[in-house]
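Quick note —
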Amino acid sequence: MTQQAIEQLASEIEALKPEFIELSDRIWDLAELKFEEFESAKLQAALLEKYGFSVTRGVAGIETAFCGEYGGGRPVIAILGEFDALAGMNQVAGIAEEKSDKPGASGHGCGHNLLGAGSLLAAVGLARHLEKTGIAATVRYYGCPAEEGGGAKTIMAEAGVFDDVDLALTWHPAPFNGVRSTNNLAVIEYDIRFRGVAAHASNAAHLGRSALDALELTNIGINFLREHMPSDCRIHYAITETGGVAANVVQARAAGRYMIRAPEIVGARALAERVKKIAEGAAMMTETSVELELGKATNSLLPNLTLETAMHEQMTALGPVPFDEADEAFAKDIQATFSQEAIDSSIRLYQIKGDALSNTPVDGSQPLHRGLRAFEGKSHFRAGSTDVGDVSWVVPTAQCWAPAWAIGTNPHTWQVVAQGKSPAAHKAFVHAAKAIAATGLAAVRDPGLIERAKTEWREKTKAR
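Predicted structure written out below.
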């Protein structure tokens, strides 16, 4: 694709951005949790309809899932967006100190307000450009709720909503700019609940059967299991119920939420069976009953180097995000809240030492990533999980990252929420929209790119 075509598309997206910045900030304000993103979904769907998309609501039986379609014929380009927040992460925007004006309220600690707005902008920009240039294709925006702990894309994939798609594209906020091919972990989530018998903890302790003891024994068993599981697997948890705060009561109820991760879903299932046995053993030891409820299960991410290479090429042509001195000043203030270890860890995690636009190394002295991460053409291990993985096993999928956060920022922190409405974050999501739209346009204009991506996908899925 020519540089002129990329610049024309980028210019069209730039002209659209004010409305989408407003959308992003409004969704930041709403900060709705998984499967409860009623207003956020309504705002996104309404904007799609304003720009001529045909919108289907309640996709896959999920009230806050929807799909907007524009154009017709093949190829079908899917663009994935999210808009859910995280519980307990309320933070005042635009300041470099931890401060909540609504303690205990939710907040956008992973930047999904930006993710959804950027993906939506990419879909609208690409659709309008195709219409102006007379190129036939179908652009679909998928409004995907509940990425944080709900796995809506898994449900949507199982319902077949991606089956006729030719390729899927998305992005995520980060402290860096570029494409990083990753093998994310599959994850299985269980709620484990114990029920026992309450009793006076002093004069009738022998009559009690402690659910809290069972929960503690489960955690002890899992700690011992960690020594005997593959080093690239993960098990972590939250105690969700303790039965009360009275120490002189044998607690009859206790519960925890457990996330079990492995490089492949088969490994996650095997590890989950071992966790299940530990919980059942704890119930036997304490003479309590145990119930395991599956919360979600999402697959590992299947990288598509063909699409990722194409996306990197478009990002190279687009150049850096146009940050200014004010953007850098705020990012520097945010960066001052991190230790040097955290900054160095962020650079290692995202592997952003190399730069595709210049020879300037990324060493943490820069508050914002003004370059483009070098793309190695191979995949890396990443210990996180995403329900984008389930889409990638149905259709060739690629994603990019854009520097909405200061270098050193880690997801699910107050610093992410504080930067969620900043001008730098707005510039980053607009840049991501240009990269996604340009990649979609490259695929529409070059059917061979789609076929090569599908060939790679078929080879990888056949081998699993």
